[in-house]
Amino acid sequence: xxxxxxxxxxxxxxxxxxxxxxxxxxxxxxxxxxxxxxxxxxxxxxxxxxxxxxxxxxxxxxxxxxxxxxxxxxxxxxxxxxxxxxxxxxxxxxxxxxxxxxxxxxxxxxxxxxxxxxxxxxxxxxxxxxxxxxxxxxxxxxxxxxxxxxxxxxxxxxxxxxxxxxxxxxxxxxxxxxxxxxxxxxxxxxxxxxxxxxxxxxxxxxxxxxxxxxxxxxxxxxxxxxxxxxxxxxxxxxxxxxxxxxxxxxxxxxxxxxxxxxxxxxxxxxxxxxxxxxxxxxxxxxxxxxxxxxxxxxxxxxxxxxxx
Length: 308
Fold this sequence. Notes:
- This protein is of the alpha/beta class.
- It is built from 12 helices and 12 strands.
- Helix 2 runs parallel beside helix 6, helix 4 crosses helix 5 and helix 7 runs parallel beside helix 12.
């Protein structure tokens, strides 16, 4: 069966789709699995052995242009994990025989198998909602997948990574000065190297942190070699500390323990956005809006870092 999976948004969102792609391929190795992804996720999608083909959607073209691109592949079925009117209309115009998607938004009229999920109720995590959609195609499919889903043969090094940026994809984070406090806690142990990592467009943020940490024994790493190279690096460290952003999902994807900050709301909580990695390796903190509560969580995080 020739199957299209649509998840063409941010890095973390795409990583929540990877178990879905895996279980569909694992169900029948003859299934051809194609992923429609955003440009930033192309390299990671091509790296995954359970994805046979990758289509990049730069979102610059119309639904008609996307439909023309999809029509070339002769898909039997599509499963859209997160929909909008453009991608829904494109699949309708591409005449994909079976089009599966959650029964939400006006876009649902363009699908012919709609699944009621009510994701806003957060009865399960985002990646679990994604997996559930596969049952609309194969009722007997196993939803089990390996953890880590993407593994690298690398040696673990005694490194704790802090990733203070978030690119607007998270609803809660500590301040840069609060990150400095956390870094100091790890440095005082004398057990780990401390590395601060940054995305390719975060050079200004990196320079700000250099200034704040001047004179301290820390390293700085900006990710310019590509997402797979960065994932391989994260697989080699002992702990990854960040807000709930794409890099958190990337670290968990490759089996690295994570310590992560979430907004104290159901919509942005760890209940919804926990990563696809082993839950025993994930430590989640909800950041309240009030200063006293926030400070209390920071002290709790620092105590956790002292004994890591």
